[in-house]
Amino acid sequence: MNSETGMYNPIPLEFIENRTYDEIKVGDTAVLTRTLREEDIQLFAIMSGDMNPTHLDHEYAKSGMFREVVGHSMWGGTLISSVLGTEFPGPGTVYIDQTLHFCRPVILGDVITVTITAKQKFDHNKHIVFDCRCVNQHGLDVIIGAAEVLAPMEKIKRPKVLLPEVHMHDSVGRYQQLLAMTEGLKPITMAVVHPCDPESLKGAVGAAEAGLVVPILFGPEKKIRSVAAQEGLDITPYRIVDTPHSHAAAEMAVALVREGGADSLMKGSLHTDELMAEVVASKTGLRTSRRVSHVFLMDIPNYHKYLLITDAAINITPSLEVKVDILQNAIDLAHALKINNPKVAILSAVETVTPKLQSTLDAAALCKMADRGQIKGGILDGPLAFDNAISSLAAKAKGIKSIVSGDADIMLVPDLESGNMLAKQLEYLAEAHSAGIVLGARVPIVLTSRADPMQARVASCAVALLLAQDARDRAENGGNA
Question: CA torsion angle for 356, 359, 362, 364 (degrees, to 10)?
C-alpha cells in the first residue's frame, strides 16, 4: 500500500537510472550480453523492413557466403545503442556520432558481449567519446567502433516502462508445412459449387495453381466469368458447368461426384444448408454408413500444434450415437494428417461427471466405448472443461491427471452452438487461422465460411487431398491404414 496515495501497486517497480557527465570517468565501462535467436532476426526484419533472404531463408543462405543464416549487422549496433541509452550514460543521453566496423557475421546462437568504455571527455560541451566493442563467445571481434554522445548533466531515475509482450507466430510456416505434406501427390478433381464471389473463386483457382485440385466450376457461367474478370483470374484452363442458380449447381455437382466424375466437393458462395441438403439426400446424395460431420483444423498462435474442433457446423445437438461417428471422423482425419494416435479432449462445462449435464455423461460413455474398441485410433479423455483441456497447468491446479490435458489434438464440443462460438472466438480474438472439411460422406467436402480468405480455402483443399490419398492408401492395403 502506498501511504501517500492509498493505492495498492501489485507490481514491484524496477528503475532505470543514468550516470551524469560528472560521474563518468575515463576508463569506466559497461557490459551487455545477448544471444542471437531466430525470433531476434524475425523481429528485426519486421521492425526494419529488411527482408534480405541472407537473414531469413535457410535454403538460400546455404548457397551464400556464410553458408547459414546470419543476423542483421545492425542488430549488433542496436545493442550498443541500448547500453548508451539505458545504462551508460543512460536517460538524457543524446547521440551525436557513431562509427561501426563489422568484423564478422553473427550467426544463430552466437553469444555477443558488448563493452562500452569511456575514452575521452570534453568539458566545454559535455561530450563523451566511447569505445564500442562487440565480441562473440569465442572472444572474436564482431563489431568495433566509437560513439560520441552529449552526456546528461542531471541525475535521472525513472520507473522502467513496461513494454507490451511480443508473441511470434509463424502462420505462414505452418501453412507451408501443410502444403508440403501434399508434395508429390496427384491433384484431385474437385466440383466447386457456385463460386460466384471473389473469395470462393480465388480459393478454387489458388488451390489449382498450388497443384492440389483440378476444379470443375458449377454455377451461372456469366456470373463466374464476370467475377474472374473483376479479380483478374485466369479460369480458361477449367471446365465450367453452366447452371441457372445455386441450387441447381449443388444438385449437379453432387450428381457428378456420385457418378465418379469428381473426387471431392467444395462449397462456394451458397449457404451451407443448400449444399448439404443435396449431400445427405437419401436417394441421390453422398451418404455412407457414417454420420456426416464437420471439422475445423485450427492454427492458433498460442497453441503448439494444429487443433481439430468438431462439430461446429453440421450436427446441432448430436446424440451419443452421433458423437461416436463425429469422433471417429475426426480421428480418421488426424490419421490422414499423420497424427498417428491423436489425443481427444471431450469438452463440457465441468470436468466431473454429473447427471445434470448430458455432455458429461456422454463424455464418460465415449471414453468407455473407446476402452472397449468401439472408437478406434485415439486417446480419449473427458469430460474436460476447456481450460483443463488446453492447459496442463489448469488441469494440475484442479488435481486432474490426464495425458490429454495441455496436448489435445482434437476437441469434441457438446453441440454446434458451443463449437461454432469457440471456433469463431479463436479466429477473431486469438487470430487463429482455420481450414474446414466435412467428413463421413463418400468424398471429402471443403466447407469454409463465406468470409474466409483464399488461404483458408487452399488449406482446406490440401486437407481434402490428404484425405483422398489416405483413402486410396487404405483401399490398396485392404482397408488398413
Answer: -80
